[in-house]
Amino acid sequence: MAGLMEITQANGAISMQIVSGAVCEPASMCSFTGEIAQGDLILWNHDTVDDEGGEVTNTLHLVFQNASLINGVGGAYYNHPKMKCIWNWDIFAHRPEVVDGEWKPGAAAGPKE
Questions:
Q1: The pTM is what?
Q2: How far is Cα 4 from Cα 20, in angstroms, rounded to an integer?
Q3: Any residues with CB less than 8 A from the CB of 58 and at least 6 apart, and which?
Q4: Residue range 53-88, pLDDT digits in tens
Q5: For residue 51, what is the enclosing H or E element?
Q6: Distance CA 53, CA 70 (A)
Q7: What Rg value do the Cα atoms of the chain yield, rounded?
Q8: For residue range 16-60, what is the model confidence (pLDDT) as tens digits?
Q9: For 43, which of 32, 68, 72, 82 could close a Cys bridge (C-beta 3.0–4.6 Å)?
């Protein structure tokens, strides 16, 4: 997945919104609440995602490498009345440039191996 996310901090509360690059069903799964723990950003969300009572909890652990780069890990836990699934992923994000008031996200190539 590639897209834009927006992280905001207001009155001590941190939130993250996936703006593009993902289809969130329900839409609440694109909104995260968070906190800073030992300098890292920890984000999470939780909701019922189907009409069978299945619930998903997502967590993200983001580490700021500098003012423009973040990497980290994400994970999801799906709890359905008849089964459970767990999956995780790596995250690489960069702050896009703003040129003449327009976001220029460019292509996040990820860390060099």
A1: 0.81
A2: 5
A3: 29, 32, 44, 45, 46, 74, 75, 76
A4: 999 999 999 999 988 889 999 999 999 999 999 999
A5: none
A6: 34
A7: 15
A8: 999 988 889 999 999 999 999 898 999 999 999 999 999 999 999
A9: 32
